[in-house]
Amino acid sequence: MNDILKLTITELIEKLKTRELRSVDVTKAALERIKERNDSINAYITICEETALKQAEISDQKLDDGEAGMLEGVPLGIKDLFCTKGIKTTAASKMLADFIPPYESTVTQNLLDEGAIFLGKLNMDQFAMGGSGETSAFGDTINPIKEEEKLTAGGSSSGSAAALADFQCFGATGSDTGGSVRQPASFTNTVGFRPTYGRCSRFGMVSFASSLDQAGFMARSVEDTALMFRAASGFDEKDSTSADVAVEAYDEIINDLEVKGLKIGLPKEYFVDGVDQKVKDVINAKVEQFKAAGAEIVEISLPHTKYAVPTYYIVAPAEAAANLSRYDGMRYGLRVEGENLSDTYAKSRSAGFGWEVKRRIMVGNYVLSSGYYDAYYSKAQKVRSLLSLDFEKAFEQVDVIFAPTTPELPFELGGKIDDPIAMYLCDIFTVSSALAGIPCISVPAGFTPEGLPVGLQILGKAFDDAKVLQAAKKAEDMNK
Ligand code: GLN
């Protein structure tokens, strides 16, 4: 492998600026790596060789002309649920297997405006529903860490995580509805950041559960993640839930945090018996490092944590059922002709959606149907408020919260796919924060004795994105 692929984004930018490297050469090297590795790792659904090289040529010109954007010439991978104009966007479903969007999502447009190169579209769980990459209609993604053991790279942003860990891109977009950038980051020793809800526009992202969906950013360093996040975020009138709050120079202020005196909350509900001891060991060691550096460690309680998974698995499917009703075989997406209109609907949806998507549509319609709405959906909404309140109270006491990202280590492909409840339970530490809409990140914390990665999760108050990133940078520095 070409060593330039191991650079971080910030290192690459330096070398592009001094012309030590040219974007065309870097892009070629990345494309070569992808082509060489895609059969084994299956991180990419679509490779954009021609457009990427064209973008790189333009970037080199811009660098020569002194007109470089924040990410000028940097090759990224894009999760295949961001609509990319003129480039297939499948959401890893047969339903959208041939869908070529006539428009660009705001997040990807912002990245393009800053000079990013798009290498291709990354594999994922179908419609972002899943935690292992296995619900993709385009095959499983293999975790490059211990490749021979065929472990999952996590999900739903499986391709983003695997591509990064395997040096097939320098940074990647993901999306996080209930943990989809954080859990794959934890499983692949990469960084995965979920911003405050509303911080990044959802326009042009294939919808799963609109009140939860957020764009996420993944990279091999915290600073890279902060830079991509800065480039992609901002108010957007095309998304009614977009927040009109100033974007900060997250990458430039990444070191502006004192560990001394930092109040770190450890929720007792996140360190319980069901959590793998090896995960706890790595997290505890990291907490000790912060303590030694002068942080104040406070035990806190998030008392409604035990209701987070059931709440999420009512709210998310309910919204998914509504969002996915647009795929009716009529306007766009797969169409299977039937004998009449309803027959065409039924045949198209039956053929287009995978089993996990169908399961969620059924659950969603059930909890929204008359007679069950009050018992499930409206109760879940109330519990959602209680979960948010848990965090609000906690942040009266502490600056940030530390926790494991997931209760377990990367597991084998096929290990949970036939047991949806077991799969859903893995989301226990990532769904509460998603329901509350607060910023959170998974940052590499270390390895188990067998060499499996463990991610430390850091959570902050809404719009305290900078602080979450800064604390993660400190955690990353302590790995060295
Ligand atoms: N694993 C969770 C689910 O299946 C989260 C997915 C996501 O964040 N997109 O819903």
What does this molecule look like?
It is a single chain. With 480 residues, the protein is an alpha/beta fold. It has a domain at 3-232: Amidase signature (AS) domain (Amidase signature (AS) enzymes), CATH 3.90.1300. 39% of the residues lie in helices and 13% in strands. It has 15 helices and 11 strands. It has helices at 9-17, 23-41, 49-65, 106-113, 158-165, 182-188, 222-232, 277-292, 308-323, 341-352, 355-368, 373-397, 420-425, 431-436, 465-477, and strands at residues 44-47, 75-79, 117-122, 171-176, 191-194, 214-219, 263-267, 296-300, 400-404, 440-447, 453-459. The protein has an 11-stranded mixed β-sheet with strand order 1-3-2-4-6-5-10-11-9-7-8, sandwiched between helices. Helix 8 (277-292) links the parallel strand 7 (263-267) and strand 8. Helix 5 packs parallel to helix 6 (182-188). Glutamine binds at residues 128-131, 156, 175-180, 208, 316, 427.
